[in-house]
Amino acid sequence: MNAHSPTATDTLRQAAAQYEGNLVFATSFGAEDQVLTHMISHLGLNIPLATLDTGRLFPETYELWARTEEIYGIRIIPYFPAAEEVESMILDKGVNLFRNSVENRHKCCNIRKLRPLKRLLAGKKAWICGLRSTQSITRKGLHITENDEANGIIKISPLAHWSEEDVWNYIRAYGIPYNPLHDAGFPSIGCACCTRAVKRTEDVRDGRWWWEEKEHRECGLHRRPRH
Protein backbone atom coordinates (compact mmCIF):
# COMPACT_ATOMS: atom_id res chain seq x y z
CA MET A 1 0.00 0.00 0.00
CA ASN A 2 1.09 3.54 -0.66
CA ALA A 3 1.81 5.21 2.68
CA HIS A 4 0.78 8.60 1.28
CA SER A 5 -2.64 7.44 0.06
CA PRO A 6 -5.83 7.38 2.14
CA THR A 7 -6.66 3.97 3.57
CA ALA A 8 -9.25 1.87 1.80
CA THR A 9 -11.64 2.24 4.72
CA ASP A 10 -11.22 6.03 4.69
CA THR A 11 -11.96 6.04 0.96
CA LEU A 12 -15.11 3.96 1.47
CA ARG A 13 -16.35 6.16 4.32
CA GLN A 14 -15.78 9.32 2.30
CA ALA A 15 -17.49 7.88 -0.79
CA ALA A 16 -20.49 6.73 1.25
CA ALA A 17 -20.89 10.21 2.72
CA GLN A 18 -20.22 12.19 -0.47
CA TYR A 19 -22.40 10.09 -2.79
CA GLU A 20 -25.06 8.89 -0.38
CA GLY A 21 -27.93 7.33 -2.32
CA ASN A 22 -26.02 7.68 -5.59
CA LEU A 23 -23.29 5.08 -5.11
CA VAL A 24 -22.97 1.36 -5.86
CA PHE A 25 -20.29 -1.28 -5.42
CA ALA A 26 -20.02 -3.60 -8.42
CA THR A 27 -18.52 -6.90 -7.30
CA SER A 28 -17.37 -9.82 -9.42
CA PHE A 29 -16.44 -11.84 -6.32
CA GLY A 30 -12.70 -11.63 -6.95
CA ALA A 31 -10.30 -11.49 -4.00
CA GLU A 32 -10.20 -7.69 -4.05
CA ASP A 33 -14.00 -7.46 -4.22
CA GLN A 34 -14.33 -9.79 -1.25
CA VAL A 35 -12.03 -7.51 0.75
CA LEU A 36 -14.22 -4.51 -0.10
CA THR A 37 -17.40 -6.42 0.71
CA HIS A 38 -15.98 -7.22 4.14
CA MET A 39 -15.00 -3.60 4.74
CA ILE A 40 -18.37 -2.21 3.67
CA SER A 41 -20.22 -4.70 5.85
CA HIS A 42 -18.10 -4.22 8.96
CA LEU A 43 -18.11 -0.43 8.63
CA GLY A 44 -21.90 -0.53 8.37
CA LEU A 45 -21.87 1.64 5.25
CA ASN A 46 -25.02 2.19 3.24
CA ILE A 47 -23.50 1.09 -0.06
CA PRO A 48 -25.57 -1.36 -2.14
CA LEU A 49 -23.74 -4.29 -3.77
CA ALA A 50 -24.51 -5.44 -7.29
CA THR A 51 -23.01 -7.91 -9.73
CA LEU A 52 -23.15 -8.80 -13.42
CA ASP A 53 -24.27 -12.37 -14.06
CA THR A 54 -23.17 -13.08 -17.62
CA GLY A 55 -24.72 -16.54 -17.64
CA ARG A 56 -21.31 -18.17 -18.10
CA LEU A 57 -19.74 -17.86 -14.65
CA PHE A 58 -17.95 -20.69 -12.86
CA PRO A 59 -20.01 -22.85 -10.46
CA GLU A 60 -17.51 -21.83 -7.76
CA THR A 61 -18.47 -18.19 -8.31
CA TYR A 62 -22.15 -18.88 -7.70
CA GLU A 63 -21.27 -20.83 -4.56
CA LEU A 64 -19.19 -17.90 -3.29
CA TRP A 65 -22.03 -15.50 -4.13
CA ALA A 66 -24.41 -17.50 -1.93
CA ARG A 67 -21.86 -17.90 0.85
CA THR A 68 -21.04 -14.18 0.85
CA GLU A 69 -24.70 -13.24 1.20
CA GLU A 70 -25.10 -15.71 4.05
CA ILE A 71 -22.00 -14.62 5.98
CA TYR A 72 -22.63 -10.89 5.72
CA GLY A 73 -26.43 -11.02 5.86
CA ILE A 74 -26.87 -9.14 2.59
CA ARG A 75 -28.46 -9.45 -0.83
CA ILE A 76 -26.35 -8.69 -3.88
CA ILE A 77 -28.39 -7.24 -6.73
CA PRO A 78 -28.03 -9.28 -9.96
CA TYR A 79 -27.95 -7.77 -13.43
CA PHE A 80 -28.38 -10.12 -16.38
CA PRO A 81 -27.92 -9.61 -20.13
CA ALA A 82 -31.07 -9.30 -22.23
CA ALA A 83 -32.11 -12.84 -23.19
CA GLU A 84 -33.17 -11.88 -26.71
CA GLU A 85 -29.79 -10.22 -27.38
CA VAL A 86 -27.87 -13.29 -26.22
CA GLU A 87 -30.11 -15.58 -28.28
CA SER A 88 -29.67 -13.47 -31.41
CA MET A 89 -25.89 -13.24 -30.96
CA ILE A 90 -25.45 -16.99 -30.55
CA LEU A 91 -27.76 -17.78 -33.45
CA ASP A 92 -25.76 -15.43 -35.67
CA LYS A 93 -22.18 -16.06 -34.48
CA GLY A 94 -22.21 -19.36 -32.59
CA VAL A 95 -22.06 -20.18 -28.88
CA ASN A 96 -18.27 -19.63 -28.60
CA LEU A 97 -18.02 -16.69 -30.99
CA PHE A 98 -15.44 -14.94 -28.80
CA ARG A 99 -12.72 -17.37 -29.91
CA ASN A 100 -13.00 -16.35 -33.56
CA SER A 101 -11.98 -12.69 -33.39
CA VAL A 102 -11.40 -9.77 -31.04
CA GLU A 103 -14.43 -8.11 -32.62
CA ASN A 104 -16.63 -11.08 -31.74
CA ARG A 105 -15.26 -11.21 -28.22
CA HIS A 106 -16.00 -7.54 -27.72
CA LYS A 107 -19.52 -8.12 -29.02
CA CYS A 108 -20.04 -10.88 -26.45
CA CYS A 109 -18.64 -8.74 -23.63
CA ASN A 110 -20.79 -5.84 -24.74
CA ILE A 111 -24.01 -7.83 -24.58
CA ARG A 112 -23.19 -9.85 -21.46
CA LYS A 113 -21.39 -7.15 -19.45
CA LEU A 114 -21.39 -3.58 -20.76
CA ARG A 115 -25.11 -3.20 -21.41
CA PRO A 116 -26.07 -4.70 -18.04
CA LEU A 117 -23.48 -2.40 -16.44
CA LYS A 118 -25.25 0.61 -17.95
CA ARG A 119 -28.42 -0.47 -16.15
CA LEU A 120 -26.49 -1.12 -12.94
CA LEU A 121 -25.01 2.39 -13.00
CA ALA A 122 -28.15 4.20 -14.16
CA GLY A 123 -28.92 7.16 -11.91
CA LYS A 124 -25.67 6.80 -9.95
CA LYS A 125 -22.98 9.46 -9.54
CA ALA A 126 -20.15 7.10 -8.60
CA TRP A 127 -19.28 3.43 -8.43
CA ILE A 128 -16.78 1.38 -6.47
CA CYS A 129 -14.71 -1.46 -7.88
CA GLY A 130 -11.78 -3.63 -6.82
CA LEU A 131 -9.18 -2.61 -9.38
CA ARG A 132 -5.47 -2.49 -8.49
CA SER A 133 -2.79 -0.72 -10.53
CA THR A 134 -0.48 -3.77 -10.61
CA GLN A 135 -3.07 -6.18 -12.02
CA SER A 136 -2.13 -5.63 -15.67
CA ILE A 137 -0.50 -3.23 -18.11
CA THR A 138 -3.95 -1.83 -18.93
CA ARG A 139 -4.34 -0.73 -15.29
CA LYS A 140 -0.91 0.79 -14.74
CA GLY A 141 -1.07 4.24 -13.18
CA LEU A 142 -4.56 3.68 -11.79
CA HIS A 143 -5.77 6.36 -9.36
CA ILE A 144 -8.07 5.78 -6.42
CA THR A 145 -10.58 8.19 -7.94
CA GLU A 146 -10.93 8.61 -11.68
CA ASN A 147 -13.42 10.04 -14.11
CA ASP A 148 -15.16 7.13 -15.83
CA GLU A 149 -15.70 8.79 -19.19
CA ALA A 150 -17.39 5.75 -20.73
CA ASN A 151 -20.17 5.83 -18.14
CA GLY A 152 -20.15 9.53 -17.30
CA ILE A 153 -19.62 9.04 -13.55
CA ILE A 154 -16.83 8.79 -10.97
CA LYS A 155 -15.08 5.44 -10.47
CA ILE A 156 -13.52 4.73 -7.10
CA SER A 157 -10.88 2.02 -6.57
CA PRO A 158 -10.07 1.95 -2.83
CA LEU A 159 -7.44 -0.79 -3.37
CA ALA A 160 -5.70 0.94 -6.29
CA HIS A 161 -2.34 1.02 -4.52
CA TRP A 162 -2.58 -2.33 -2.77
CA SER A 163 -0.30 -5.20 -3.77
CA GLU A 164 -1.50 -8.76 -4.24
CA GLU A 165 0.24 -9.59 -0.97
CA ASP A 166 -1.74 -6.85 0.79
CA VAL A 167 -4.99 -8.38 -0.46
CA TRP A 168 -4.19 -11.91 0.68
CA ASN A 169 -2.79 -10.81 4.02
CA TYR A 170 -6.08 -9.02 4.68
CA ILE A 171 -8.16 -12.03 3.60
CA ARG A 172 -6.23 -14.33 5.90
CA ALA A 173 -6.30 -11.89 8.81
CA TYR A 174 -10.10 -11.58 8.75
CA GLY A 175 -11.08 -15.02 7.48
CA ILE A 176 -12.81 -13.57 4.43
CA PRO A 177 -14.47 -16.11 2.09
CA TYR A 178 -12.90 -16.29 -1.38
CA ASN A 179 -13.20 -18.28 -4.58
CA PRO A 180 -11.36 -21.63 -4.29
CA LEU A 181 -10.26 -21.23 -7.90
CA HIS A 182 -7.67 -18.75 -6.61
CA ASP A 183 -5.94 -21.68 -4.91
CA ALA A 184 -5.96 -23.57 -8.22
CA GLY A 185 -3.94 -20.93 -10.11
CA PHE A 186 -6.71 -18.53 -11.13
CA PRO A 187 -5.65 -15.01 -10.03
CA SER A 188 -8.36 -13.36 -12.16
CA ILE A 189 -11.76 -15.02 -12.49
CA GLY A 190 -14.41 -14.10 -15.04
CA CYS A 191 -16.53 -16.19 -17.38
CA ALA A 192 -15.59 -19.87 -17.31
CA CYS A 193 -15.16 -19.95 -21.09
CA CYS A 194 -12.68 -17.07 -21.07
CA THR A 195 -10.63 -17.80 -17.95
CA ARG A 196 -7.84 -20.30 -17.30
CA ALA A 197 -5.23 -20.96 -14.64
CA VAL A 198 -1.81 -19.32 -15.07
CA LYS A 199 1.74 -20.41 -14.38
CA ARG A 200 3.90 -18.71 -11.76
CA THR A 201 5.90 -17.02 -14.53
CA GLU A 202 2.82 -15.54 -16.20
CA ASP A 203 1.12 -12.20 -15.65
CA VAL A 204 -1.97 -12.03 -13.44
CA ARG A 205 -4.17 -11.26 -16.46
CA ASP A 206 -2.66 -13.96 -18.71
CA GLY A 207 -5.52 -16.22 -17.72
CA ARG A 208 -8.10 -13.93 -19.32
CA TRP A 209 -8.63 -14.10 -23.11
CA TRP A 210 -5.20 -15.69 -23.40
CA TRP A 211 -5.52 -16.10 -27.16
CA GLU A 212 -5.40 -12.30 -27.63
CA GLU A 213 -2.61 -9.73 -27.36
CA LYS A 214 -2.17 -8.35 -23.84
CA GLU A 215 -3.23 -4.87 -24.87
CA HIS A 216 -6.68 -6.22 -25.78
CA ARG A 217 -7.36 -8.13 -22.57
CA GLU A 218 -10.09 -5.97 -21.10
CA CYS A 219 -13.81 -6.45 -21.55
CA GLY A 220 -14.57 -2.72 -21.60
CA LEU A 221 -15.92 -2.49 -18.07
CA HIS A 222 -12.80 -0.64 -17.02
CA ARG A 223 -11.80 1.19 -20.17
CA ARG A 224 -9.32 3.90 -19.33
CA PRO A 225 -7.96 6.77 -21.45
CA ARG A 226 -4.67 6.02 -23.23
CA HIS A 227 -1.75 8.35 -22.51
Q: How is this fold's topology laid out?
A:
Blueprint: H1 8-18, E1 23-26, H2 31-43, E2 49-52, H3 59-72, E3 77-79, H4 83-93, H5 102-121, E4 126-128, E5 145-148, E6 153-156, H6 164-174
Parallel strand pairs: 1-2, 1-4, 2-3, 4-6
Antiparallel strand pairs: 5-6
Helix pairs in contact: 1-2, 2-6, 4-5
Compact summary:
With 227 residues, the chain is of the alpha/beta class. The protein is built from 6 helices and 6 strands, in the order αβαβαβααβββα. It has helices spanning 8-18, 31-43, 59-72, 83-93, 102-121, 164-174, and strands at 23-26, 49-52, 77-79, 126-128, 145-148, 153-156.
Question: What does this protein look like?
Answer:
This protein has helices at 8-18, 31-43, 59-72, 83-93, 102-121, 164-174; strands at residues 23-26, 49-52, 77-79, 126-128, 145-148, 153-156. The protein contains six helices and six strands; from the N terminus they run αβαβαβααβββα. The protein has 227 residues and is an alpha/beta fold. The longest helix has 20 residues, at 102-121.
Q: How much is the average pLDDT? A: 89
Number of helices: 6
Order of strands in the sheet with most strands: 3-2-1-4-6-5
Helix share, percent: 25-40%
- Radius of gyration, in Å, reads 17 Å
Instruction: Determine the N-to-C terminus distance.
Output: 24 Å
Class inferred from helices and paired strands: alpha/beta
How many E strands? 6
Helix and strand sequence: HEHEHEHHEEEH
Residue fraction in strands = 5-15%
Largest sheet: 6 strands, mixed
What are the segments in which pLDDT stays under 50 over at least 5 consecutive residues?
A: none
Task: Give the overall shape.
Answer: globular
